[in-house]
Amino acid sequence: MKENEIEKIEVDLFVEAIFQRYGYDFKHYAKASVRRRTRNLLQKTGYSRISEMIPKLLYDESFFQSLVCDFSITVTEMFRDPDFFMGLRKKVIPYLKTYPFVKIWHAGCATGEEVYSLAIVLKEEGLYDRATIFATDFNDTALKKAKDGIYPIENIRHYTANYQKAGSTESFSKYYHAEYESAIMDQALKERITFANHNLATDGVFGEMHLILCRNVLIYFDKTLQNRVFDLFSNSLIHKGFLCIGSKESLQFSEVCEHFSVADEKQKIYQKKY
Amino acid sequence: MTGSSVMRQYKAIVIGVSAGGMKALMELLPALPENFPLPVIIVQHLHPSQGVFYVKYFNGISAIRVKEADEKEAIRPGHAYFAPPNYHLLVEEDQTFSLSSDEKVNYSRPSIDVLFESAVDVYSADLVGIILTGANHDGAKGLRRIGRNGGLTIVQDPAAAESSLMPLSAIDAAKPDHILSLEDIGTLLVTLGD
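ok -> structure tokens follow
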């Protein structure tokens, strides 16, 4: 057997050990990315084989905590894909305005940049006070950062440019204040947001939503897990509720495809038919 | 290099290209015939805001079908696939694509190393890796990995490349089987497909 094939076995055993010991299920993540991340982790630890990390994983919980950060995707930004937020304003918000209250689930919110972007859009559209936002992730470290809402000041210029492209007419600076090297998000943006731990691979429905956002998370899952999550979303949405996924993701080949109509093809915004 | 490496049956070609890439690919992709039996998978460093225009352009001038790689898409012969801007492109065991928006690697997303390393995992010795013009070091590690696993490694002649840094660092890291002009790379690829 080639070394390459042996390494594949090691990755599988490692992922199985994570699952049995800590209950986090990466078995249905896209394998190539899991393998890459496991290799990166190996480099950091100084072991020479992936299988050598298994005893450490089993007996050292702090090792697992840092692994969760390495295995979850925390790359995000405010108003990432500004055109999407424009699409949200035009195609989704007017519909949501017809409800006396709206429940929104932001699944896989990572460090929270997109949740605050969403909160800003809702404020500007006059919908914020009627909204409840659930922002979830399986990574507690990322969730804490999201809750704190403190971001490096050097990113603000880029975020401001994104914000302007997303169809806003206000000034982005009114939503944060600068302190030393940080931009601290306005407290008022957090009032209607509940941050909570939820794992898309293992947890279930927790409420009926008018809108679900889950962008650039599904690309990390295999077909089986994608279908599980689409099913979960479908079951969590009210009749005529909206689902927004990442620009490179698609409902087209999923099992729930026929339950949805397309609200915005390019921005990957779907509406549940029934 | 040797006749034997040319006679081997390869399963895929991966190409990494950066600064000067448009011109290089304009020469290379049209050299491949319509029934070319191998898939060609390309990472080109582009600005994230770059649209799909270039893919359509390459499709228009090439006999093989050129498209942007879709998530979970099955990799087929006779096609050239580009990594979408701002996403890493990876090859999965079942010969489909997956995308990732993980951190940049070598200041790049998509990164050539990420594609090459995942392609080696799947195709091992049956892979052809090519580094073309570019002004950074991305791809050097990946090409070395392809070579070490017995795949065929090719680098564009730095003297003829618009930007020589990427070919030079790939040559330094990978000691490639071939250092060739674009024209000769085209000719070699066509023979590989015969």
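Helices of chain B lie at 3-7, 21-28, 53-61, 112-123, 140-148, 165-174, 182-193.
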